[in-house]
Amino acid sequence: MKPSYRKRLLLPAAALFAVGAAQTAAAGESGSFELIATQVHDYTTLKHAGRTITAGPLKGTASVVATSGGPFADGANYRGACVVYVKTSDAGIDLEAPCTITDEADDVLYLLSERRAGNIAAGGGGTGNFRILGGTGKYAGIVGDCPYRTSYLPGKWIVTKSKCTWRRP
Fold first, then answer.
1. CA neighbor of 83 nearest in space, from 55, 107, 106, 110
2. Where do the domains of the chain lie?
3. For residues 89 and 75, what is the distance between their CA atoms, to the nearest angstrom?
4. Which of 30, 90, 92, 97 has the fewest Cβ atoms within 10 Å of its own Cβ atom?
């Protein structure tokens, strides 16, 4: 076979390979991980217009305890801060908390916690959901959901366990 004929056969094959690789990359990544967090809150509470409003910072650490891979490494540790806003009335609890967590490489992950069950008293807690809203570095473009269960302990301590699914569209 002549060299020029081989080139004519190899170029279309290489182009098909490149298109296939680009389609695989465009399809995105996805996975899951489990996270456990320990935090301390410093809430302020006031009575206002027939309900109780509680707000304040929540700071602590979190660790990945299981993962399917991707940017969430098994054993990875994070430091985090949230601003918690809770409205409590006869209808129940309405909690929202934007959170920023930073890993050991200083890459940041943005979460939004929402909870409509349980309470925020020591001995209490409840279930809710973290929405993953992207981040910086290896977390850029990631979205997902993290159903969680949180427990309020005496002394303003909180423990939260979550199982997350994520994707990079």
1. 55
2. 29-168
3. 39
4. 90
Distances (CA, A) of 64 to 42, 103, 106, 161, 164: 25, 11, 16, 10, 10
Mean pLDDT of 66-78: 96
Tokens 């994520």 appear where? 166
Strand partners of residue 102: 79, 108
117 Cβ partners below 8 Å, 6+ apart? Answer: 92, 93, 126, 127, 128
SS3 content of the chain, % helix, strand, coil (to 5): 20, 60, 20
12/125 Cα distance (integer angstroms): 61
| Amino acid letter, residue 126 | G
pLDDT digits (tens, 9 = 90+) for 116-154: 999 999 999 999 999 999 999 999 999 999 999 999 999
User: What's domain 29-168's superfamily in CATH?
Assistant: SO1590-like (2.40.350.10)
At a CB cut-off of 8 Å and minimum separation 6, what does 115 contact? 93, 95, 126, 127, 128, 129, 150
